[in-house]
Specification:
alpha/beta, 6-stranded mixed sheet, 4-stranded antiparallel sheet, 10 helices, 34% helix, globular, binds adenosine-5'-triphosphate
Amino acid sequence: MALIELQDVRRSFTVRARTGRFSRVKREVRAVDGLSFTVEAGECVGYIGPNGAGKSTTIKMLTGILVPSSGRLRVAGVDPARERVALARRIGVVFGQRTTLWWDLPLRDSFELARRIYRIPDRRYRENLGRCVELLDLAGLLDTPVRQLSLGQRMRGDLAAALLHDPQVLYLDEPTIGLDVVSKGKVREFLREVNRDRGTTVLLTTHDLTDIEQLCDRVMVIDHGRVVHDGGLDGLHAAGRSERTLVVDLAEARPPIEVAGARVVKVEGPRQWLAFPARESAAPIVAEVAARYPLVDLSVREPAIEDVIARMYARVAIG
Ligand SMILES: Nc1ncnc2c1ncn2[C@@H]1O[C@H](COP(=O)(O)OP(=O)(O)OP(=O)(O)O)[C@@H](O)[C@H]1O
């Protein structure tokens, strides 16, 4: 069953640009320009694209904040802009940059407020709260005012608040932004549980490719308000021929090292950067480097989403 459906959805804005000291011209910006896609129940879909691509405009239309200029849009069978109350019961929203929690109140009170707003039956509320508190490690934080929580703790609180009413669809906008590695891991683990075990449909906007890799089987890339890729992450890597980077700290500075399957793209003193295809395993390259050169440290870096998309375009342009 399709939980999110868009058919030729468009949304334009009229902006006034200054052309001289006293003159202005009206210009139409097509933020979303003919989007059509469906997301089936239980999917976890990455929704990515460069700045200004139209991601936020899409999410705002899906949450009923913005009305489309034209086209058809349904979320869990509901027209978002017309049936906002019905929609609110079916969706949960988490913005990494903003909190929906009450700043001066203990975390517990924000949850209690959600219980009343969504009229969550007592038993379901207790069960859902218990599960979120356990999985998100919130037990020791329930009586802490939200303003005293760290970013990672606050994000875990926001996730719990968004899920207490058992929404069918969860929108996540940069849920791991600014978090340290441990907090990112906890958030991702929780989201995996929510998607796989509870069957909650997830639409995830992020600039962190690892979020997508660890959570999504499908990724949609949008640019200039249109879908330019819809498929697996492998397909995206292949389309962009994207590369990961092995950063090696050698015991001493030396000329570029030679390793099968990778090429040195940068050298700085004893540190060298080796690029290799993102789809290949790093293990044989790491093994060969370790066997042939004295090493101090090494790490693997994922390609940035922007790089993957840029390479995808370069390939399309070349043909
Ligand atoms: N309220 C508005 N008035 C005028 N133009 C707008 C408005 N909202 C968005 N736009 C324009 O629509 C286009 C798409 O913006 P949108 O915020 O949806 O992009 P985005 O993909 O979310 O970008 P980012 O990654 O930077 O958040 C941009 O050109 C933006 O300037």
